[in-house]
């Protein structure tokens, strides 16, 4: 074969291969997954526009609620479908469609992936972990919405993707779903707590039951609870009128005092009192999420952010030459909430003396500091009656009150528990049916002897550490005087002209 014949043969083979490829392309059936999406959108896959927004993992229930509300408005009969195929947890929807179209990946229509998310302390809802739905944009154009939740081996976020032939339709759909998401926020009006997940190392939001507590269950000196309520609850009740008069709503309350005096108990009362507010509780290492908590509070106002034992992160920066990163995060979070936001920061501390002064340098950080003192004689008697309210208390309380000067509420709670244990042991078989005790304590009589036995045990030498931990009044664990001033209200003026009200209710 000469060179000319070889060239002709090569050309003929090339033409044959090209024609065969074109014939195969023309006859190849479009994958069902691609056909369903492009058929609905009315355009080729290469012209499909994708708009995606990503949220924190704990926003998935809110995202589902927003999309559910959107579908109810624009396509109530729409049905979700899923995507089957290995590796889908690592691919976005556009890549999955492109892979299916090229035949490189075995992506096809499959079952929807579902998961369960909490929407309250005792309530859950079903959410889409991976799925698509055909619907319409607010203007009526066809769009496809895709939802993705945190994947076990993929991304740890929640995501909404809108596919459309025109970008404006995708954006309009995403924006309306986002508005409906906020209108149907599962966190609004709830009591929440941030925590760390050891499984993924991410931040999670946990629902807590709202405490139910009457004012008579909070044993404080006269006027303390009223002052706190006026500052926290009262300002919220006048929020509209205060805004009309140009006054800021954001406020900060510092509850300080020795351990066990009732700071957390007072906070729990406020949480139950403010039933219309979202409450976000930050304790321990979770305080590092204070920026996220402040943003959530701003979004869900009226809201309260509770930071317990704030001295653990808000120690005066002069105590460390490197400063305190968590303190800076706390200050930034408090400042980042607008003054007209109905957001309250409630801080508790056992050591007010080491707190960073900057916490009180501006209104809205801390504008009221209240000492929760150790109970006086009347308070100690009230605490004994409070913790024995479900029992038959037949005892002269005066000797116990006299012997427990300087003790805290925690001390009395443990005292009553030990007195009940003493009574149950005397009653026989731990207070069961043989002893005749009635469930709930109604049949158990608590006498002065029971209380005295329990008190003697707690005051014994071997219980010294217990007394120190519960607060028996023997010593101040901080070794410094409490932060108090005489009188009802002291306007502490600072160099920049701001002031903070310090209230003392001690003897």
TrEMBL record:
<feature type="region of interest" description="Disordered">
    <location>
        <begin position="471"/>
        <end position="491"/>
    </location>
</feature>
<keyword id="KW-0547">Nucleotide-binding</keyword>
<protein>
    <submittedName>
        <fullName>ATPase</fullName>
    </submittedName>
</protein>
<comment type="similarity">
    <text>Belongs to the AAA ATPase family.</text>
</comment>
<dbReference type="GO" id="GO:0016887">
    <property type="term" value="F:ATP hydrolysis activity"/>
</dbReference>
<feature type="domain" description="AAA+ ATPase">
    <location>
        <begin position="249"/>
        <end position="376"/>
    </location>
</feature>
<dbReference type="InterPro" id="IPR003959">
    <property type="entry name" value="ATPase_AAA_core"/>
</dbReference>
<dbReference type="Pfam" id="PF00004">
    <property type="entry name" value="AAA"/>
</dbReference>
<dbReference type="InterPro" id="IPR027417">
    <property type="entry name" value="P-loop_NTPase"/>
</dbReference>
<dbReference type="GO" id="GO:0005524">
    <property type="term" value="F:ATP binding"/>
</dbReference>
<keyword id="KW-0067">ATP-binding</keyword>
<dbReference type="InterPro" id="IPR003593">
    <property type="entry name" value="AAA+_ATPase"/>
</dbReference>
<dbReference type="InterPro" id="IPR050221">
    <property type="entry name" value="26S_Proteasome_ATPase"/>
</dbReference>
């Amino acid at each position: 074969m000469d060179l000319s014949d070889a060239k002709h043969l090569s050309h003929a083979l090339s033409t044959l291969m090209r024609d065969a490829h074109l014939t195969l392309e023309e006859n190849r059936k479009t994958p069902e997954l691609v056909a369903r999406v492009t058929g609905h959108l009315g355009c080729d896959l290469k012209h499909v526009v994708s708009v995606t927004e990503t949220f924190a993992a704990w926003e998935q229930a809110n995202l589902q609620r927003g999309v559910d509300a959107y579908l109810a408005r624009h396509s109530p009969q729409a049905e979700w479908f899923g995507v089957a195929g290995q590796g889908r947890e690592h691919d976005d929807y556009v890549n999955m469609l492109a892979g299916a179209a090229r035949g490189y990946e075995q992506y096809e229509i499959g079952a929807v992936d579902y998961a369960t998310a909490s929407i309250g302390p005792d309530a859950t809802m079903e959410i889409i972990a991976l799925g698509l739905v055909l619907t319409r944009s607010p203007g009526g154009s066809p769009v496809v919405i895709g939802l993705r939740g945190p994947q076990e081996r993929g991304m740890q976020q929640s995501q909404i993707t809108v596919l459309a032939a025109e970008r404006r339709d995708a954006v309009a759909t995403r924006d309306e779903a986002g508005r409906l998401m906020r209108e149907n926020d599962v966190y609004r009006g709830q009591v929440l707590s941030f925590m760390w997940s050891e499984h993924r190392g991410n931040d999670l939001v946990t629902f807590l039951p709202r405490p139910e507590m009457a004012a008579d269950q909070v044993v404080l000196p006269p006027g303390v609870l009223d002052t706190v309520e006026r500052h926290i609850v009262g300002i919220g009740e006048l929020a509209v009128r205060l805004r009309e008069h140009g006054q800021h709503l954001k406020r900060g309350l510092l509850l300080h005092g020795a351990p066990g005096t009732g700071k957390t108990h007072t906070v729990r009362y406020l949480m139950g009192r403010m039933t219309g507010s979202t409450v976000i509780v930050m304790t321990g290492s979770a305080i590092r999420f204070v920026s996220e908590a402040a943003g959530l509070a701003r979004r869900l106002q009226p809201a309260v952010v509770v930071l317990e034992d704030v001295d653990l992160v808000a120690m005066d920066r002069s105590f460390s030459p490197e400063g305190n990163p968590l303190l800076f995060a706390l200050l930034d979070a408090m400042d980042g909430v607008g003054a007209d936001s109905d957001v309250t920061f409630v801080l508790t501390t056992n050591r007010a003396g080491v707190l960073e002064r900057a916490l009180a340098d501006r209104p809205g950080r801390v504008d009221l500091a209240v000492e929760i003192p150790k109970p006086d004689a009347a308070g100690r008697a009230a605490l004994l009656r409070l913790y024995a309210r479900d029992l038959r208390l037949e005892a002269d309380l005066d000797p116990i009150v006299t012997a427990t000067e300087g003790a805290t509420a925690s001390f009395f709670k443990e005292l009553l528990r030990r007195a009940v244990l003493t009574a149950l042991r005397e009653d026989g078989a731990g207070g069961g049916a043989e002893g005749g005790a009635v469930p709930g304590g109604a049949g158990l009589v608590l006498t002065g002897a029971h209380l005295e036995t329990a008190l003697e045990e707690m005051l014994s030498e071997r219980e010294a550490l217990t007394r120190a931990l519960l607060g028996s009044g023997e010593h101040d664990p901080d070794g410094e005087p409490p932060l108090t001033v005489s009188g009802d209200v002291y306007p502490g003026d600072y160099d920049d002209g701001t002031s903070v009200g310090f209230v003392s209710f001690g003897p």
